[in-house]
Amino acid sequence: MMASGVYTTEATHRGLRAMICPVCKYDMIVVEYRSIELDYCSNCKGVWFDSGELELLLQSHGLEEAKVFLDGVLNSKEVSSSERKRNCPICGHKMKKTAIGGQPEIIIDICRDEHGLWFDGGEVSQLTRHLAGERPPERNPSEQVMGFLEEVLNLPE
Questions:
Q1: Which of 156, 117, 125, 157 is nearest to 141 (CA)?
Q2: Cα 147 from Cα 157, distance rounded (Å)
Q3: What is the tens place of the pLDDT at every residue in 2-49?
Q4: Which residues, at least 6 apart from 103, have a Cβ–Cβ distance to it below 8 Å?
Q5: Mean pLDDT of 81-91
Q6: Cα(5)–Cα(87) distance, rounded to whole angstroms?
Q7: Which residues pair with 39 in a beta bridge?
Q8: Which residue in 22, 115, 126, 138 has its CB near the most CB atoms, within 10 A?
């Protein structure tokens, strides 16, 4: 059950505040990676970054221009997309869809109240590769998700 449209009642009773995935409505888990807490959905593989967390992640990967890039993303126009609009897992308001990266573009969801950004499964890896100037590896989507999980959860490859 949802309490306040954001956190589950069960999690709240245990003293925890599990965020609800804006895509599939499952509880998300908090994963700490390089001192950054990521909210991760183990069902749809999406990742929520609270305001400022993505910049920290990009900087931790040595991407010097992370702030300039993110300012551009946050101030960019909304794009049309066939994807359904999603609600911010913090405030519950509809987020705007923004295209980032090169070809193919990555469509992410940004909270208009600046609570954070939502990436569908595999999109964080696509973004970091794009910013680093790497070509995407020849892997299928499940291998890309596993690569991201191995990195986030510090599993051996």
A1: 125
A2: 8
A3: 333 343 333 433 445 679 999 999 999 998 877 788 899 999 999 999
A4: none
A5: 91
A6: 10
A7: 30, 48
A8: 22
Q: Locate the domains of the chain by residue range.
A: 2-152
- C-beta neighbour count of 116 within 10 angstroms: 21
Within 13 Å, how many C-alpha atoms sit on residue 146's CB side?
Answer: 7
Give the CA-trace dihedral at 152, 69, 63, 122, to 10 degrees: 30
The answer to whether the beta carbons of residues 41 and 25 sit under 8 Å apart is no
Find the distance separating the first CA and the last CA of the chain, reported in whole Å: 37
Q: How big, in percent rounded to 5, are the helix, strand and coil portions of the chain? A: 30, 25, 50
**Radius of gyration of the chain from its Cα atoms, rounded to whole angstroms:** 15
What is the dihedral angle through the alpha carbons of 90, 149, 75, 65, rounded to the nearest 10 degrees? 140
State the amino acid at position 140 in one-letter form: N
Token match 């897992």: residue?
89
Neighbours of 66 (CB within 10 A): 18
- pLDDT tens sequence across 63-84: 667 777 778 888 888 988 888 8
